[in-house]
Design a protein that fits this description.
97 residues; alpha/beta; Transcription Regulator spoIIAA; 5-stranded mixed sheet; 3 helices; 38% helix
């Protein structure tokens, strides 16, 4: 299950699992964001390769127009996934406190 919506401060809040079953819904939401986008990952439990693809596609689109994705609240497990995949070189990642 995945919930993706705007938080009160304008950040994109992702809750649950971003996997192949949820990737099209996530992509549909992220296709509408513009500029510098902060994604709150503090309640993101899991991300699959399909989920990584959603983030990568969104990042490429935003970079083309002067924006970018910034991932905040990233837990240790997700930090490892981003590091092993090399995505820590593609995104600005702020670890969970």
């Amino acid at each position: 299950m995945l919930t993706i919506e705007y938080g009160v401060d304008g950040t994109v809040v992702v809750v649950g699992r971003l996997d192949a079953a949820q990737s099209s819904a996530a992509q549909g939401f992220l296709d509408k964001v513009q500029g510098l986008v902060t994604v709150d990952c503090s309640r993101l439990e899991y991300i699959s390769s399909a989920g990584l693809g959603v983030l990568l596609k969104t990042q490429k689109r935003l970079l083309g127009s002067g924006g970018k994705l910034r991932l905040v609240g990233v837990n240790r497990h997700l930090q490892d996934v981003f590091q092993y995949s090399g995505f820590d070189q593609i995104f600005e990642i702020v670890p969970a406190a």
